[in-house]
Design brief:
The chain is α+β, with helices and mostly antiparallel strands. The chain contains two helices and five strands, in the order ααβββββ. It starts with 5 loop residues before the first helix and ends in a 10-residue tail after the last strand.
Length: 110
Amino acid sequence: MRTFPKSLAVLRRIVNERGEKLRQLDYVELRKRPKPLEDGEVEHLTVDSRPATIGIIVEPKPDGALRVVVQGFMNARFVPLLKHVALDGFYKHPNQSVTQMPDAEFYEFG
């Protein structure tokens, strides 16, 4: 299935790769990550000549799990005020297990 535009498919692939790398990290390593607005949490890149950013959010939850969200934003080509969004998310539990974040929760981040 082709994603329109093609550059959004590239951004989604990059966001998913970042998410896969984060899934491999230990629970303690994820917990130590800087807060979302601190230096190093926003990656600036170019996708098909368009500026894009990828941010990582790690939130502790009351049950001890960490909710990890990878957000990618890229300017639309013909309407600069619009942004394309790519998201990946999961929960890392203290026992090192990983569960997928439900799709409905992504609406909090888009």
